[in-house]
Amino acid sequence: VQLVESGGGLVQPRGSLRLSCAASGFTFSAYALTWYRQAPGKGRELVGYITRGGDGGRTTYVDSVKGRFTISRDNAKNMAYLQMNSLKPEDTAVYYCYALGVLGQGTQVTVSS
């Protein structure tokens, strides 16, 4: 089982980024996919998750990102995505995807002017 995140980088406040999570080694469509983040000096925080649903899955988000972040998945490609809009400096963190007991290596997102 392997999860590999990509798409992080440096972005200005109010900007956007799309993170990707490539899954391999398991039946991706059969499992929920969760996004976490960890800011410097802080513990890991749930961002949100998407269920396995055949219609693309239902999503749930932590209050701090509701209306700004969108999680989606493409089961045919074994991919999940985290679209982040209206980014704020407090969104700066390493972002991880998680499924089936496995956490990816993370991708750094820095929001700064």
Task: Tell how many strands the DSSP assignment holds.
Answer: 11
Biggest beta sheet attributes: 7 strands, mixed
Q: Indicate the structural class.
A: mainly beta
**Order of helical and strand elements:** EEEEEEEEEEE
| Number of helices, counting only DSSP H or I runs of 4 residues or more | 0
Write a structural description:
This protein is an all-beta fold and 113 residues long. It has no helices and 11 strands. It has strands spanning 2-6, 9-11, 17-24, 33-38, 44-50, 59-61, 69-74, 79-84, 93-99, 102-103, 107-111. The strands form 2 sheets. Strands 2, 4, 5, 6, 9, 10 and 11 form a 7-stranded mixed sheet that branches. A 4-stranded antiparallel sheet has the order 1-3-8-7, with no helix packed on it. It starts with a strand and ends with a strand. 27% of the residues are buried. The model has no long low-confidence stretch (mean pLDDT 96).
